[in-house]
Specification:
By secondary structure, this protein is mainly α. It folds into five domains: about 50 residues; about 160 residues, 2-Layer Sandwich (Herpes Virus-1); about 55 residues, no CATH class; about 60 residues, no CATH class; about 110 residues, no CATH class. About 55% of the residues lie in helices and about 10% in strands. The two termini are about 45 Å apart. About 20% of the residues are buried. It comes from Glycine soja.
Length: about 475
């Protein structure tokens, strides 16, 4: 007798045959359709396209970062009618936000100048002076050997070089460099840097300035992958979607910079990572699988053998594993080596109830955590293998398959896309175990629905892996 599903399948096949012979198949040319049908076709295509998530991030190379930085400096310099060096100092002070620079400048220009160190006129004047005294070494120098910032405080070139070079070698703090005079807040711009220091120090300063454009900007971050030098700018887009895929093939969450973990929220990921690295699970294991020596309190694990336990040197105390009493009080009358009458009697009286309950709870908690962690780690390992397989496919097998099938490699892109889908499936399935671990036990309906969805996703992953492995085998043939 046919099942209901078989009957549905048969009906579906009949309807497909009817569509085929009536010329209304999916692959039919548009000439087969009426104008209304064609309009509906394009409307559906537009709706499908509109449902695709828009990319709300931009990957930037170093040249892109430098171009954007120079463009922002030029915009501020043009609008405020100031030099590019002053515009750069302003932007650096306002975390490279052009809008903030404009708002604060036009609200109170004098206050902004004072905060940044952009002086309109020198504090110290030197009219017609042929020689000046350096404010650091107190030696007299000709005017040509003296340099001054916008404040007018005079310092010799040698002292300037030492002061700026030391600041640059100390780190990115050199971007906030001020006049050496302790009472002066005049800013030292890139023009002074380029004039006075070596080429190596100039490159370091320029590097710090370039990195500050990303690190001080709230809308941009460096890719957290080891060795990656790409940056990412993030724009407001799909609510709750913080997944970013860098050019280096590393995917991460913009919000917490951990590995991409959608649909699990950042809070759950943070708790899971902390739990994996914390010592609490070690203590749970010790509590669940060991007992303290009655004399020295050192944890002792029993993995086989009888109930006669001997603590490690220098303690060497002998005790019973069950009742934790001295073994000298035990013997044939207490149950021998594999039982303990004292323990059984005390247990019936409820003496060990709290201790045993605590050990049982620790054991159950440890087993539950192990269950989820092993599957989380297994999917992580499978994902890493899929990444390695993808690399091998792109570098070795795709060329062989192209020769065997007599097709250009551009026609075999679907294999790479399928492999990327395997990697994505492994990523999502991995994080479902972190989600399941923190799912409250009392929410039975939610837990059952989660397990149902997880099962569907797991089956889909098996199917995708099957076809992925078949592709590898066919390629190797």
């Amino acid at each position: 007798m046919e099942s209901e599903d078989d009957m549905h399948d048969a009906n579906d096949i009949e309807s497909l045959d009817d569509d085929f012979y009536s010329g209304e198949t999916e692959d039919a040319p548009l000439d087969y359709y009426s104008d209304d049908d064609a309009d509906d076709y394009f409307d559906d295509a537009e709706r499908i396209e509109s449902r695709r998530p828009e990319q709300n991030f931009t990957i930037l190379k170093e040249s892109d970062i430098r171009l954007r930085q120079e463009d922002d400096v030029a915009r501020v310099a043009t609008v405020l009618s100031i030099s590019r060096v002053s515009a750069s100092l302003l932007l650096r002070h306002h975390n490279w936000s052009v809008s903030r620079v404009h708002d604060t400048w036009f609200a109170d220009e004098e206050r902004v100048r004072k905060a940044v160190g952009l002086l309109e006129k020198p504090i110290v004047q030197h009219p017609n002076a042929r020689e000046l005294t350096c404010g650091i070494c107190f030696e007299n120098y000709p005017r040509a050997r003296i340099e001054m910032a916008s404040c007018g405080h005079p310092y010799c070139i040698s002292c300037w070089e030492g002061y700026i070079s030391t600041s640059i070698n100390d780190g990115p703090g050199c971007l906030m460099l001020r006049c050496p005079d302790p009472t002066c807040g005049a800013a030292i711009g890139q023009d002074m840097i380029n004039l006075l220091v070596s080429d190596e120090d100039k490159q370091k300063y320029a590097r710090y300035l370039l990195r500050s454009y990303i690190e001080d900007n709230k809308k941009s971050k460096w890719c957290p992958a080891p060795g990656c030098e790409y940056a990412v700018t993030f724009d407001a887009g799909s609510a709750g979607n913080y997944d970013v895929s860098c050019f280096c093939s590393y995917g991460f969450c913009w919000n917490c910079t951990e590995e991409a973990h959608r649909p699990v929220d950042c809070g759950t990921v943070a708790k899971w990572i902390l739990k994996n690295s914390a010592e609490s699970e070690n203590m749970n294991w010790i509590l669940a699988n060991s007992k303290p020596c009655p004399k020295c309190k050192r944890p002792i694990e029993k993995n086989q053998g009888c109930m006669h336990m001997t603590c490690t040197p220098p303690c060497k105390f002998e005790f019973c594993w069950l009742c934790v009493g001295a073994w000298s009080d035990h013997g044939e009358r207490t149950g021998g080596f594999y039982a303990c009458n004292r323990y059984e009697a005390a247990k019936q009286e409820g003496v060990y109830d709290d201790t045993e309950r605590r050990r049982e709870m620790a054991k159950n908690s440890l087993e539950r955590y192990t269950h989820y962690y092993e599957r989380w780690a297994s999917n992580q390992s499978s994902r890493q293998k899929a990444l390695a397989d993808l690399q091998q496919m792109q570098t070795v097998h795709i060329e062989k398959l192209s020769d065997i099938q007599c097709q250009p490699e551009s026609q075999l892109k679907f294999i790479t896309e399928a492999w990327l889908q395997i990697i994505e499936c492994r990523r999502v399935l991995k994080w479902t175990y972190a989600y399941g671990f923190y799912l409250p036990e009392h929410e039975h309906a939610k837990k059952q629905f989660f397990e149902y969805l997880q099962g569907l996703f797991f089956n889909l992953n098996i199917i995708i892996n099957f076809f992925g492995d078949s592709s590898v085998n066919n390629t190797q043939l």
